[in-house]
Amino acid sequence: MCGIIGIIGKAPVTPLLIDALKRLEYRGYDSAGVATLINGHIDRRRAEGKLVNLEARLKVEPLPGTIGIGHTRWATHGKPSERNAHPIATDRVAIVHNGIIENFQELKDELVAEGRRFDTDTDTEAVAQLLTSYLERQMSPEAAMGKAMERLRGAFALVAMFSGRHDILMGARRGSSLAVGHGNGEMYVGTDALALAPFTSRVTYLEDDDWVVLNSTGCTVYQGTTTVERPEKKSGLSGALIGKGNHQHFMLKEIYEQPAVVGDTLQSYLDPATRSVRTPSLPLDWTKVSRVTMTACGTAFYACMVAKYWFEKLARMPVEIEVASEFRYREPPLPEGGVCIAVSQSGETIDTLEALRYAKSQKQILLSVVNVPESAIARLSHAVLPTLAGPEIGVASTKAFTTQLIVLLNTAIAAGRARGTLSREQEEKLALAMIELPARINETLNMEDDYRRIAESTLAAARDVLYLGRGSSFPVALEGALKLKELSYIHAEGYAGGEMKHGPIALIDDAVPVVVVAPSDAIFDKIASNFEQVRARGGKLVLLSDAQGVARLGAKAETSIAVPDIDPVVAPILYTVAVQLLAYYTALAKGTDIDQPRNLAKSVTVE
Ligand code: F6R
């Protein structure tokens, strides 16, 4: 979702603002803009669509100035036009904003009644006009921002630049992320450490309800009218980590990073020498936990679905999984002594954050599996189980998902060990299977040409594709379908194999490829029956199984791939890589925008 950057510099800032916006492109956006102060006056350039349009505009109409703000906008209120693009400005103030001002209509009505004219359809303009109204009443920018924070409702991050004030920028956050970067005689403020990475590694993360005044030498953070201390931290991000390397897309790079990041994550959760999981110190006793509730959105929710199988099987625990956006409004009672685990790559997804807040209100112990340790979800949790995937830039989640699965599997094993439901032999067997995983993922990647061939010959021309799986392969089928639809815009659905005959089988004909995710496990015979049911109706079957499964069913499929052999418990992680490759190469064949699919955002900070 929207990306924010602000710079108080020594030299012209527009090229730096554009650079930072490029690093924020991964979040998803549909218009962009920059504003600077020139002789005290706000001047801006904005453009609909991708940053190249803004850059083309800046070539014709350059924007000098040593202080400025920039924005990539993912439209919420008002269509993605130049008029609605940020910075939103009056003659007094320019604003860039991420999130939603929930009471914008109420504010707008008041401000219109005061005689103010609104030029855009955005909720953001209510903030710009509110600040302007305060400034016109002779308030200082600091007083105006402090007072505005009392009036604004919703989840947002914003940065403001004031006409006539070359010396300051202001930021504010509630719900959405915002960080300050410290340079030498230069200061930065942006959505996340990625935006700030090449400028500085000295970062101050703001907390909810903080507002901040930056000048060229430092910053002062406020909560209400009192100043608060926020530590300066060292960000581990470097330019190299966030580049595309030799890959055509970030997504492909991130798919290829999986052997390494799965290995890194394993290292911190598993001791290869003793073949046992390391028990992270958690504020709970697994033998006393009454229930596990897991909550997340999208792909991260499918990680919860897989983990439910693991916790139930290995730790014999009751587990509920909840789509975060539904959970928080259903307000179900949660049992005393329960644990709630939130799973999120960004750690900023608003629905997941609010679901965790709800769990907190129900006195649950809060754990989070996140890829960004400084994120809001991490900070709300009693304990964090980090994924060590490194920055994920492609909008579609890949390495974040597989590392989430690693963390959740090791946690389920730790719970099983503590509860006495998992023997030492079983733990050792699973540890060995996980230790093999990076090598098995590599072997899968080495077969990329096979996946490319199926993508080009069978999937790319389809209008609809079905994915089937049973047991813990069912969430992999859902993930395969989600990846395919979001990247290639082909309609795709995932089903539990046994559900086919209850409706979806009506869709089967020779134009609908059916991808069957079927490692040889205890229920292989069952998925084999579903396979035959599709075959009998002329469906085009694509089989993803191991050598044994392909030997049994391969001849009956239109096409099949033997995924490397792996323990069935660990198989969902490996088969995920297979469905990622299918989706990537289908999208490549269709020529869609793989790293930034239309309408999608990386970090979903609005409801
Ligand atoms: C799909 C995808 C999304 C995210 C979802 C949650 O490829 O990436 O479905 O998984 O938006 O995001 P996080 O994990 O950041 O909470």
For this entry, give a set of tags.
alpha/beta, Glutamine Phosphoribosylpyrophosphate, subunit 1, domain 1, Rossmann fold, binds fructose -6-phosphate
Describe this entry's structure for a reader.
38% of the residues lie in helices and 23% in strands. The strands form five sheets. It has an eight-stranded antiparallel beta sheet. It has a seven-stranded antiparallel beta sheet with strand order 5-6-7-8-12-13-14, covered by helices on one side. Strands 19-18-20-21-22 form a five-stranded parallel beta sheet, with helices on both faces. A hairpin with a 2-residue loop joins strand 2 (31-38) and strand 3. Helix 8 (258-269) runs parallel beside helix 13 (399-419), helix 14 runs parallel beside helix 19 and helix 16 runs parallel beside helix 19. The mean pLDDT is 94. The structure holds fructose -6-phosphate. Residues 297-300, 344-346, 349, 352, 396-397, 482, 486, 603-604 line the site of fructose -6-phosphate (F6R).
Report the span from N to C terminus: 11 Å
Shape: globular
CATH class wording of the largest domain: Alpha Beta
Helix content: 25-40%
CATH topology of the largest domain: Glutamine Phosphoribosylpyrophosphate, subunit 1, domain 1
**Overall pLDDT:** 94
Got a strand count? 27
